[in-house]
Amino acid sequence: MTTIIHCLRVWRHYLLGSKFVTLIDNVATSYFQTQKKLSPKQARWHDFLAEFDYVLEYKPGKTNVVADALSRKAELASITQVTSALADRIKQGLQHEPLARNIIALVEEGKTRRFWLTDGLLYTKGNRLYIPRWDNLRKELIKECHDSLWAGHPGMRRTLALLNSAYYWSGMQDIIEGYVRTCLVC
């Protein structure tokens, strides 16, 4: 509802006097007009909305393909899916890093359940990909999740959360914290 109010304020001069339909993919928001008890903020919104000739129409996200695509960040999908070039570099790094070689040996001997190999890549709990300390791989991933346009310098906690959802290496938090502290934009 906040988004709808914001957009109506921005485009008010275009929308006043004309009838329009607002498609939403949130069922709860579709009941806003028929709600009996309103909070003070909702009451202000209701007064503001009275100026417009509009209809709130619920349309599930799966059927509202255009709006659903616009509301998703395609860049986020790219960090959770390993591209073939990155995968090749990680495989190469796994062969060069002594710790990774030791872990792979333990996996092959069946002495650990914490790690496993899939297509030559080393994974750990949460289906997170192990990133070896080799060829600036870790720094590049941190840079992608912190400095890129879609990330927008989110700070230490959010950068850690972004990386922690798909990747793993020991001392991850300290390395990310050091990177964010030295970021001139932050």
Q: Concise description?
A:
With 186 residues, the protein is an alpha/beta fold.
Helices and strands in order, then pairings?
Elements: H1 2-10, H2 12-15, E1 19-24, H3 27-30, H4 40-49, E2 53-58, H5 65-71, H6 74-80, H7 84-96, H8 98-109, E3 115-118, E4 121-124, E5 128-130, H9 137-146, H10 156-164, E6 167-168, H11 172-181
For the largest sheet, list the strands in their spatial order. 3-4-5-6
For the sheet with most strands, the description reads: 4 strands, mixed
What structural class do helix, strand and pairing data support? alpha/beta
What is the percent of helical residues? 40-55%
CATH architecture classification name of the largest domain: Orthogonal Bundle
Q: How many alpha or pi helices? A: 11
| CATH topology annotation of the largest domain | Endonuclease III, domain 1
- What's the domain count? 2
Shape type: elongated
Overall pLDDT level: 86
Radius of gyration: 24 Å
What is the count of β-strands? 6
The end-to-end span amounts to 31 Å
Topology pattern, helix = H, strand = E: HHEHHEHHHHEEEHHEH
